[in-house]
Design brief:
five-stranded parallel β-sheet; elongated; alpha/beta; 11 strands; 53% helix; 477 residues; binds flavin-adenine dinucleotide
Length: 477
């Protein structure tokens, strides 16, 4: 038998092979994330199906056998589905790592918000239909029935209070109302949703069939309630407190980047264990007078180097303005890292990064942390003047290091044109395609003011980019 030595492959062929392997890895990771997403979504639909199946299995079908009971039957079903979705809303807001890694924190919160109104309508329908249904059975009008429920039935008075709280939470969360309220006021009212859930619980034990002894439903609902409330306690309280104590972060320097913009560097213990990526954000609390009561989300502006974490903040409001006077040595506690505005959401090898104003922060950090071959990335920066292009020198150096092409567009937008481009770039006929010719085969990462971001997304979609290629980090939840 003769053995033939493998032909030596050329350096170019080896490079091509490595690039293909990397592309395959990115695709595999993307498909795994899609599958996880499908599974989690299926669980949500399944939970509604389980609730209905348990209702029917525990004798619920009898409500639909006679016309006079139908209203009560539908009233119970709306209550069950509404409660199920309300607990799912809690789970979505609990910052559970698998949900964050699959959909991203922003998308999970968007679904949480979307469910708010339907849940309220279901709970209101539950209340009114039962007032009518039980009223028919007792020969009372709905108002008299409601009074009878509150006065004579155990735990019903607090269930009505719970509905009132829920109305307050949903109304203060409507975009039009929320814009008029301070974040802090909205946040405190929002905390009432936990009160609403806890106040509604006793009537489900004493009046409802959810917890009837000896039923499967009892176990399902107990697991869901305990799971949702435990997730909130673990991921929003216990882990952040434990992690803040463990890493013992302190401000090590505060550097002025531009008027009203500072970079805050924090050092602590065992930073690598946080496994934070450039492009992610934390919710930070600085333990200084006038600041400790107020936590804010800020993205990392540099990929963590194992010793320190850095954020760059612009004084866009009262809370962020206070950071300009932050002193080295200040203790810092945090929740996070959160978000998938990172390499984790890549679907292909090439990437285009577009940042405006303080939106440069996660763009610069993700550029630093991304696995990119030379000429695979394009960076487009936008500022109303040259001073507005923050972290400019660092971003320039990173583009040189990664052989990424860099385009900077400064100046105001053209008057009367709905575009994200500067007047100069617009007049020269520039577009996303001329600035980043590879864009159609790339992932597009955008961060900047929301209306500006929307215009970049609009142009990307007009070019035919698919939703999964577009990753926008919005600095408002
Ligand atoms: C994911 C994410 C990453 C961000 N990264 C950066 C960054 O790297 N650099 C930077 O300068 N800014 C960043 N921001 C924006 C920054 O968090 C807000 O500018 C800051 O919270 C405003 O607070 P303020 O008290 O200064 O202003 P305010 O006048 O109190 O509020 C201004 C706006 O910020 C919102 N806001 C206030 N507090 C919070 C909060 N705790 N959570 C969510 N929204 C809040 C308010 O609803 C309002 O719309 C980020 C925001 C998000 C959501």
């Amino acid at each position: 038998m003769t053995l033939t030595a493998p032909k030596p492959t050329s350096a170019a062929a080896r490079r091509k092979n490595v690039a293909t392997q990397r592309e395959i890895q990115i695709k595999k990771r993307y498909i795994a994330r899609l599958r996880r997403g499908d599974l989690l979504e299926t669980i949500v639909y399944f939970s509604v199906a389980i609730v209905l199946a348990l209702f029917l299995a525990d004798g619920g079908a009898t409500y639909f056998l006679s016309l006079k009971d139908v209203t009560t039957g539908i009233g119970i079903v709306t209550g069950l589905v509404g409660s199920d979705l309300m607990l799912i809303m809690l789970i979505l807001a609990a910052r559970i790592p698998v949900i964050d890694r699959t959909f991203g924190h922003d998308k999970a919160l968007a679904v949480h918000r979307k469910l708010g109104k339907p849940v309220l309508y279901l709970i209101l329908a539950h209340m009114f239909l039962l007032m009518i249904g039980y009223g028919i059975a007792q020969g009372l009008n709905p108002i008299a029935e409601a009074i009878d429920m509150i006065v004579n039935q155990q735990d019903m008075s607090i269930a009505f209070i719970a509905t009132g709280l829920l109305i307050a939470v949903v109304v203060t969360s409507l975009v039009i109302v929320r814009r008029k309220l301070s974040y802090e006021f909205w946040y405190i009212v929002h905390l009432l949703s936990y009160g609403a859930i806890l106040l509604a619980l006793p009537h489900q034990f004493t009046q409802g069939m959810m917890f009837a002894e000896g039923t499967w439903a009892r176990w399902y609902w107990m697991a869901l309630y305990v799971g949702a409330l435990a997730s909130i306690t673990i991921f929003r309280v216990i882990i952040p407190v434990a992690s803040s104590l463990r890493h013992d972060l302190r401000v090590s320097s505060v550097d002025i980047e531009a008027p009203g913009v500072v970079s805050v560097t924090m050092t602590g213990r065992d930073i690598n264990a946080l496994r934070a990526q450039g492009g992610q954000f934390f919710t930070w609390r600085f333990w200084a007078p006038n600041m400790w009561w107020d936590a804010h989300p800020y993205s990392l502006s540099a990929h963590p180097d194992g010793r320190s974490l850095r954020i760059t903040v612009r004084d866009l409001g009262k809370g962020s303005a206070r950071l300009l006077s932050l002193k080295p040595g200040t203790r810092v506690s945090f929740e996070g890292p959160y978000g998938i505005f990172t390499d984790a959401s890549r679907t292909t090898k090439k990437a285009v990064f577009v940042g405006a104003g303080i939106g440069i922060t996660p763009i610069r950090a993700i550029l630093e942390s991304s696995d990119l071959d030379p000429l695979e990335a394009t960076v487009i920066l936008r500022g109303s003047d040259a001073q507005d292009v923050y972290l400019w020198q660092e971003t320039y150096d990173l583009c040189v290091e990664k052989s990424a092409s860099l385009r900077v567009l400064v100046g105001h937008r053209p008057k009367g044109v709905n575009t994200w481009l500067s007047a100069e770039a617009y007049s020269k006929g520039e577009s996303l395609l001329t600035l980043a010719p590879q864009i159609k085969n790339s992932d597009l990462y955008i961060c900047g003011p929301t209306p500006w971001t929307d215009l970049v997304v609009r142009d990307a979609k007009r070019l035919g980019l698919q939703d999964h290629q577009i990753h926008a980090e919005r600095f408002d939840f």
